[in-house]
Amino acid sequence: MADEDDLFAEAMGKVRPLAPSNKVESEPLKRRKRVVLVKAATGSIMSPRANYSPERTDDPWRLVADGVSRERLRRLAGGDPSVALTLDLHGLTRDEALRQLTLTFETALQSGQRAMRIIHGRGLHSQGKAILKEALYHWLHDGPFAYAVLAAIPEPGSGGGACLVLLRRQSV
Q1: Is residue 52 part of a domain?
Q2: What is the rounded CA–CA span in Å between residue 157 and residue 92?
Q3: Does the residue 172 lie in any domain?
Q4: Whole-prediction pTM
Q5: Closest CA to 164 of 67, 63, 94
């Protein structure tokens, strides 16, 4: 233990506090609430687990959990399972969109939905980059319902303005 302490002290030896004018103030981190969902049809409980979140791929607009095959992604793109829920985020601010996502995911999971379409737009009216699109994919990967996302892929024919999300089956 002393060796680790010595190594840390040596590594941090030249570190000095920033001058007050160079500091960037940030909001304090909020603790995530533990989310427990009840499946309406069976009354079974599904608890999220941290290791369930989908992995990023080489394509930044594609999230795929371990074990999801290319064939499964092709079927999702082809409409299997069919999309029963569409969320349109056009015209919303980033914060409004994230609140709407939370409400929609709660509804989708409680009603046992397997696939949903999220229309986020291509960011043509954003300054610089697509704010909603980037926030959405970050939320799908790291947000409170990341455990429920098996895959998120760009919807074919949407021009990059919408994605399809495959949700995990609820445990019985």
Answers
A1: yes
A2: 23
A3: no
A4: 0.65
A5: 63
Q: What six digits make up the tokens of 99?
A: 């609140």
Cβ–Cβ under 8 Å, residues 58 and 51: no
Q: How many domains does the chain have?
A: 1
Tokens 């999230």 correspond to what residue?
A: 63
Residue 120 covered by a domain = yes
How would DSSP label each residue in 100-133? HHHHHHHHHHHTT--EEEEE----TTSSSS-HHH
- Distance in angstroms (rounded) separating the CA atoms of residues 134 and 155: 15
How confident is the model over 116-126, as pLDDT tens digits?
999 988 766 66
Q: What is d(CA 76, CA 167) in angstroms, rounded to the nearest whole number?
A: 11
Residue found by looking up tokens 């960011």 in the block: 123
Give the pLDDT confidence of 56-100 residue by residue, as tens digits: 666 668 899 988 999 999 999 999 999 989 999 988 889 999 999
Contact assessment for residue 137 and residue 54, using Cβ atoms and an 8 Å cutoff: no
Report the CATH number that the domain containing residue 118 is assigned in CATH: 3.30.1370.110
CA neighbor of 61 nearest in space, from 132, 113, 144, 143 = 132
Say if residues 48 and 147 touch (Cβ distance below 8 Å): yes
pLDDT digit string (tens) for 30-56?
444 333 333 333 333 344 444 455 666
The residue with tokens 């608890």 is: 47
* Residue numbers of the domain that contains 57: 2-167
